[in-house]
Design goal:
single chain, 6 helices, alpha/beta, seven-stranded mixed β-sheet
């Protein structure tokens, strides 16, 4: 059993002005760096054995700031943890998307494809660190997709965001990735909908 604390990177200038980032490599702004330091302070007292991150600079720098604050490292960069690919939508704001795509964000990579890409990488990371606790810095689209997969789209609820610097606890048990808590809120299988229930998907 290995615990994975997944953290969304800190704010970037594109986050601030509402542009879709995806695979575009946008660095942290000063607010994002402070969010990373705040995350390190929030996680103080937890023992971490290793740290990994998406290679995109906003995630890698967030990981380095948190690792420095917690006295862990070095940061292992894992290509499979990069953000979803949003194709032509990258660099667009909400009004741009409304005008170009009729209000629906067109992603090149579905949430299901994102899970298929990232889940094996996280399980492999856990298998290299059995019985340990790892810090993993990635992206809102990745973390949100994994949470939706683990909860059959119960969480996040409509309008609920994966906020910059937030942390979410997953656990790998017998090769399976499970959600333990979403931003500190415990998850339970009792919250799963019936198999035949229709749950809205975004």
């Amino acid at each position: 059993m290995t615990d994975l604390v997944l953290v969304r990177h800190g704010e970037t200038e594109w986050n601030r002005i509402g542009k879709v980032q995806g695979r575009t490599d946008i660095p942290l702004n000063d607010t994002g760096r402070e969010q990373a330091r705040a995350t390190a302070r929030r996680l103080e007292g937890q023992e971490f054995d290793a740290v990994a991150a998406s290679p995109l600079s906003r995630a890698a720098e967030t990981a380095r700031i948190i690792a420095d604050g917690l006295g862990i490292g070095p940061v292992e960069l894992v290509d499979a943890l990069v953000e979803r690919d949003y194709g032509e939508a990258e660099g667009m704001t909400g009004p741009d998307i409304d005008a170009r795509f009729g209000g629906r964000l067109e992603a090149q990579e579905s949430r299901e494809e994102t899970v298929e890409r990232t889940k094996p990488a996280l399980v492999a990371l856990a298998e290299r660190h059995p019985g340990q606790r790892l810090l993993v810095v990635s992206h809102g689209g990745v973390i949100g997709s994994l949470i939706r997969d683990a909860t059959r789209w119960v969480w996040p609820q409509p309008g609920e965001q994966i906020t910059n610097g937030s942390d979410h606890l997953f656990r790998v048990v017998d090769g399976e990735l499970e959600l333990v808590s979403f931003a500190g809120r415990p998850w339970s299988a009792d919250l799963l909908p019936p198999e035949d229930a229709t749950v809205p998907r975004d």
